[in-house]
Structures are given as C-alpha cells and as structure tokens.
Amino acid sequence: MRYSAPRGTSDILEPDIQVFNNIFNKSREIFNLFGFNEISTPIFEDSRLFIRSLGEVSEIVNKQMLNLATKENPLTLRPEGTAGIIRAFLEHHLDKEKGFAKLFYIGPMFRAERPQKGRLRQFTHIGAEAIGSIHPGLDAEILVLVTRLLNNLGVKGYTIILNSVGCEKDKAKLNSLLKKELEKKKSDLCEDCRDRLNRNVLRILDCKNESCRKLVQAINFENEFRCSDCNNHFQAVKNLIKQQQIDFQESSFLVRGLDYYTGTVFEVTHPDLGSQDAIGAGGRYNNLVSQLGGPELGAVGFALGVERLILALKSKQAQLPDNQLDVFLVVTSEDLFSQGLSILTNLRDCGIRSDIDYTNRSLKAQMRLANNLNVRFVLILGEEEAKNKFLSLKDMKVGTQEKFPLEQIVGKIKELLQRK
RNA sequence: GUGGGUGUAGCUCAGCUUGGAUAGAGCAUCAGAAUGUGGCUCUGAGGGCCGCGGGUUCAAAUCCCGUCACCCACCCCA
Q1: What is the ipTM score, two decimals?
Q2: Which of A53, A42, A159, A33 has its CA nearest to residue A105?
Q3: Which of A85, A115, A229, A336 lies 20 to 30 angstroms, CA to CA, from A211?
Q4: How many domains does chain A have?
C-alpha cells in the first residue's frame, strides 16, 4: 500500500522550505526588536483548555478540533496558540514573577476543516501575546509590530481592519440588542443566520449574504453598546496608531470567532488570497487569564497564517538564501574513493561546502551532475593526480582549469570564493 | 457537512465530445556524439494498473454506475 499525506497537510520540500525558514528567521529578528521572547508550548493540550478559552459555541470547538484517541485525559491538537501560551504563562508563574510578559511563538496549528485555498488542516502560525496590561499603548504596539513584520517580510497591499467589540458587559448588551432587532426580521435572514440567532448572534454581523448585510446595517448599533471606558480605550488606540502612521479601516461589522476577545479586534486581509483572505488577526482579551485560573490581567495578541502570508508574497525567489555547494569532487575510479573521501572530509572540516558522487558515474556524468548541482568548483582526482599528489581545480563559472598540490587546495578555493 | 471541477510518464499537460491497431508532447532523467571534462546543439534510450472497482460492447483512457483522492467555492477562520 502506498501512503499519502493526510488530507489538508503537505510536505514542504526545497526550495519552498527556504521561504518558510526565511520568514521564521526574519520574524524572530523583528520580535526581538520589540522586546518579545520566544516560547514553545506543546502542540496538544487538554481539550478542556480550548473549550474553556474559545467558547463552546465557537465553530472551532464545535466541529474543527482534532482530538487524540487516548485512554487518559481528553487531548486535542492545538487549533490556535493563545490558550496554550496563557496556560504556560500561569503554570510557570510568570504573573507572579514579573506580572507582565511579551511572548511570541512559531509553530503548527490544527483544525479539521475541509481544505481549500489558504485553508489547511495543519498550518503555521506566527503569533505573539502581550500579557499583563490594559494600556491602549499595548494594543497600538501590537498593531505596529504586525505592520513591521508584514513590511519586513515583503507583504504589500494588505489592509488592516479595526474594531472594538467592547467588554464582557458590552458584548452581552450588543448580543441582546441584535437578537431583539433581528428576531423581528427573522424570516429575511439566511438559513445560517437564523441558526446563528440562537447560537452566536454576533457572527451575523459578518455574514456575506446581501440581505443579511442590509438588515444588519439598518440597525443602528455602532455607538449604542460600548461603555464609556471601552469607547475611550478604543479612541485612544486609534489615536495612537494614527500617530504611528498606520493605515487602517474601521469596521463595526468585524467580529472574531473566538469567545475570548474583548475590546480591540483586528484583521489583516490581502486581495491575492482568494476566499480565505485574512493573513492575520488578533485583538485584546482581558478576561482569559482570569478565566483560566489566573489573576485579572489584560492581554493583547495576534497571529499570522504563514501559508497565507506566502500566498500574498510577490517575490518568493528573491528571498532564497545561498545554500549551494562550493565544490564537487570528481573521482575517476573506485580505487581512489578512500583518498577522495579524505579530501572531502578535509574540505568540509575547513568550512567548504562539498560533495561527491556515490552512484558510480562516469567522469562525464559526474561533471554533468556537478553542473546540475550548480557548484562553483569541481575538483578532479584521477590516476595522474593521485600519482603526483595534486588535484585539478576547475572553475565552473569561468571554465578554466588549473593544477594545485594537495596541501594548497583549501587555501586556493577559499581565496577564489572570497574573490566571488 | 453541501455544491462544482479535475484525476493519463518524475513534472506540466494533449488525447475523451464522435469507442478501434504498439496511448502522445514538452520539460526532467539516463546514454552517446574521436582526444580522462559540465552548460548549448544533435542522436538515442528508459519510464504508463489512463486514480480504483464494476458495467455496456467484438473492442473502453474514451460511454454508464459506484468509489477514493486532490483542487475551488459555501461554511468557518490565520
């Protein structure tokens, strides 16, 4: 039986993996600039952690969790990063130690969705959580950080959409307001939204259905539900990011699918992605830490979907690093192989990237292989070279070939490589 | 979970409408083209359960039924 990768997963080979690694490396640099420390948490957690954090009615908990078949506690492959980070934050008493932490993570997430463009069952998040403050400056910093990440990674043409869903009380108020208004027009709602009316009213706000949109737009809820604290906070965030010259669109229809969000929420969209157009999203969650058994601490976070981000990148090739071999060692007969291996090991010990053929090819075939590998130099070890203790060094770029005594080879190659 | 599309060589695809002989192309791979030597060019070679199972037929890559996989969209989300 031939096996294939599970649905919604993919193997990442060269050269694509270089694109990923580039993104990871650059992101780490930016996070460090902003004073964030990296954290790595398990890719599975107690299922109840996710149910508690994301909300029982959330789509993720309802139908997208990948649960592990174990005999002990219920375990689930993490569908997002925040819950695990907060769990770790509390488990290691970072709240008591410093009371404030800025953490970032990079790693795979899992959701059992039907795959399509920009939607995989295993996908990669780059995310961050700033825990321990309700200061609007922290919301602003997260938004600045997101723009700097995207800009440095080479993403162009993205849009930041910003909203505030208010605190827990405000959310409840908005909920009942919408429910009351929409209940009257229930028959005009789409099938899905009629269902949402009972389960998750807020989600009706971002229904794409025309008639639902109109109904929702007709309700004047924008300035009705937020308390003055939340309004002031939102206003402060907006003022701060405007001062930082960050472009954004305000939209009172933006809601997030996860329960834990309070106050500021945002989404980053890109037109090149197709239907799944969000490359990143985040917001404030002031109740999650206490909900998970910790103190009352405000927090803000975000996550970027790396695979989606790559879809939005224009020049993927330009980012490839130089990982080519410097030298290919051609050996003309099996008798010379052990001598060749010594030379090869010496080259590698001296920091020269080099390789040799293991498939008994002819000299000509080895040359062709060297060319396909795009090496800069070929070293030839043949009968004549072995007898007189020298090697032939061919510069594949220029096409010239010279002989050098064995002991001079490393120095010569290094000299030529530096000259470029 | 619901729709639509696509499965033919390692890769990208043609052939299917209207059934017919050894199933094709480009790229890739391998070998050769006097002098132990790559790139360009030329010559040649290998490589196919035509996704899988069934049916119709003298005959199926081609028509019919089923099934699986992938892609796209709904939904949801990063």
Answers
A1: 0.87
A2: A42
A3: A115
A4: 2
